[in-house]
C-alpha cells in the first residue's frame, strides 16, 4: 500500500518535510506563546443572508479599506488567504519548476522553503548575516538568477530589520530579472520601517501583509499582496476564482474600519511595552544565554539548557523551540497579555531558584 502511494508521488513531495506547529503536533497547554498570535480577541457577530451566492472574488469594501490604510490605489492590493497564500501564489506565478530558484536569508520564516520545495523550485539559501552586513555587490552576486528574493522584515524568528534604503539598493541593483518580496507580517509593530514607499520608486517590489499578527485575526486567514498593477496582473490569473469566503470578507471589512485600526495600534503600543519588560526579565535570567532584541511581537532567546523546557511544559506554557545557528537551544516567546507573560516570569523564577 505504502509502495503504491510512493510510486504516485513526485520526488519533491515524497521528500518534503511539512511545516510543523504546536497546533499540527496537537500539543496540549494552557498558555499559548508559540505562534506570534495576538492575545486580544474581538467578539464578532455578523448576519448573512447571501451564502447561496458565490462571494466577490476580491471583496471591494475590503480592498478599499486596506488600500486606504496603506495609502495605495485599489489596483495595488490583492487579498489572499493569509500571507502564506501570497508566498505560494508568487512561487506558482513566477517560478518555473526544476529551473528557477528563490533566494532566502536563513534563519527565517519556514514557509518559503516548504512552498518552494513543494513546487519543485530550488532554494538559494543565503544568510541573515549576508543580508544585514554583506556588501551590496556580493549580495547581488549571491542572488544571481534567483527569480524571487524573500526578505522577511522584521525577520521571524530573529526580529532583525533591513533598512528601507538597503532594500531599495538591492532592488535597483538586481534589476528587472528578479522580484524582491518584502514579507511585512510584523510591520504594524514598527510601521515607520515599512518598505511601502518603494512601490513607487522601484518596479520589482512586492509586499506581503497579514491580519494574523497585530490585527489579532490569525483564525480568519487573511493577508494582502501589495505591488504594482503589472506585477499583480499575472497573480490574479493564478489565484483561485473565489479565494475569500463571504464570511471572511465581512469580518475583514470590520477589522479595517478607522476605529478598529486605532484599537489595533493601541494594542501594538501595549504589546511593545510588555515586550520591553520581557526582554529585561530574560536578560536577568540565569536560564538564558542570549537575547535577540529586534522588532515584532516576539522575543527569541538562547537557553543555557533545553531541559528547562520540561518545567514550561509541566506548567502548560507553550513556546516555540528552534534550531538556529547550529544550536537547538533557541526559543521564541510570543508577546501575550500580562497574565500570559506572568507565566513566563513564573517559569523563569522557577529556573532561577533551581
Ligand atoms: C505568521 C507569518 C506569516 C503567515 O501569515 P498568515 O497571514 O497567517 O498566513 C507570513 N510570514 C511571516 C514572516 C509570518 O511570521
UniProtKB/TrEMBL annotation:
PROSITE patterns in the record: AA_TRANSFER_CLASS_2
Record keywords, A-Z: Amino-acid biosynthesis, Aminotransferase, Histidine biosynthesis, Pyridoxal phosphate, Transferase
Residues in Aminotransferase class I/classII large domain copies: 49-343
Domain of life: Bacteria
Quaternary structure, from the entry: Homodimer.
Catalytic activity: L-histidinol phosphate + 2-oxoglutarate = 3-(imidazol-4-yl)-2-oxopropyl phosphate + L-glutamate
Protein name: histidinol-phosphate transaminase
GO molecular function: histidinol-phosphate transaminase activity; pyridoxal phosphate binding
Enzyme Commission identifier(s): 2.6.1.9
Cofactor(s) the record lists: pyridoxal 5'-phosphate
Source organism per UniProt: Pseudoalteromonas tunicata D2
Family from the record: Belongs to the class-II pyridoxal-phosphate-dependent aminotransferase family. Histidinol-phosphate aminotransferase subfamily.
Pfam families: Aminotran_1_2
InterPro entries, per database record: Aminotrans_II_pyridoxalP_BS, Aminotransferase_I/II_large, HisP_aminotrans, PyrdxlP-dep_Trfase, PyrdxlP-dep_Trfase_major, PyrdxlP-dep_Trfase_small
Amino acid at each position: 500500500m505504502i509502495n503504491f502511494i510512493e510510486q504516485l508521488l513526485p520526488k519533491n513531495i515524497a521528500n518534503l518535510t511539512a511545516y510543523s506547529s504546536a497546533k499540527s503536533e496537537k500539543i496540549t497547554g494552557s498558555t499559548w506563546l508559540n505562534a506570534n498570535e495576538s492575545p486580544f480577541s474581538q467578539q464578532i457577530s455578523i448576519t448573512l443572508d447571501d451564502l447561496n451566492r458565490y462571494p466577490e472574488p476580491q471583496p471591494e469594501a475590503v480592498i478599499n479599506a486596506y488600500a486606504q490604510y496603506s495609502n495605495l490605489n485599489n489596483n495595488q492590493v490583492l487579498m489572499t488567504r493569509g500571507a502564506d497564500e501570497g508566498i505560494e501564489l508568487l512561487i506558482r506565478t513566477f517560478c518555473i519548476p526544476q529551473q528557477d530558484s528563490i533566494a532566502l536569508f536563513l534563519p527565517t520564516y519556514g514557509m518559503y522553503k516548504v512552498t518552494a520545495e513543494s513546487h519543485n523550485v530550488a532554494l538559494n539559501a543565503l544568510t541573515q548575516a549576508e543580508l544585514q552586513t554583506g556588501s551590496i555587490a556580493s549580495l547581488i552576486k549571491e542572488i544571481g538568477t534567483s527569480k524571487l528574493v524573500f526578505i522577511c522584515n522584521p525577520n521571524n524568528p530573529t526580529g532583525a530589520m533591513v533598512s528601507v534604503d538597503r532594500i531599495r539598493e538591492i532592488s535597483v541593483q538586481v534589476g528587472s530579472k528578479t522580484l524582491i518580496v518584502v514579507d511585512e507580517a510584523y510591520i504594524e509593530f514598527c510601521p515607520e520601517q515599512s518598505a511601502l514607499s518603494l512601490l513607487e520608486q522601484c518596479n520589482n517590489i512586492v509586499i506581503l501583509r497579514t491580519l494574523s499578527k497585530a490585527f489579532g485575526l490569525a483564525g480568519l486567514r487573511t493577508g494582502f499582496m501589495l505591488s504594482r498593477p503589472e506585477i499583480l496582473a499575472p497573480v490574479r490569473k493564478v489565484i483561485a476564482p473565489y479565494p475569500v469566503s463571504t464570511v471572511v470578507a465581512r469580518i475583514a471589512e470590520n477589522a479595517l474600519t478607522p476605529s478598529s485600526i486605532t484599537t489595533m495600534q493601541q494594542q501594538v503600543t501595549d504589546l511593545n511595552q510588555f515586550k520591553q519588560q520581557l526582554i529585561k526579565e530574560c536578560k536577568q535570567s540565569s536560564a538564558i544565554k542570549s537575547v535577540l532584541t529586534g522588532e515584532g511581537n516576539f522575543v527569541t532567546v538562547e537557553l543555557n539548557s533545553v531541559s528547562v523546557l520540561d518545567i514550561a511544559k509541566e506548567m502548560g506554557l507553550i513556546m516555540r523551540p528552534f534550531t538556529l545557528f547550529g544550536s537547538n537551544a533557541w526559543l521564541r516567546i510570543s508577546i501575550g497579555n500580562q497574565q500570559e507573560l506572568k507565566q513566563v516570569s513564573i517559569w523563569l523564577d522557577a529556573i532561577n531558584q533551581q
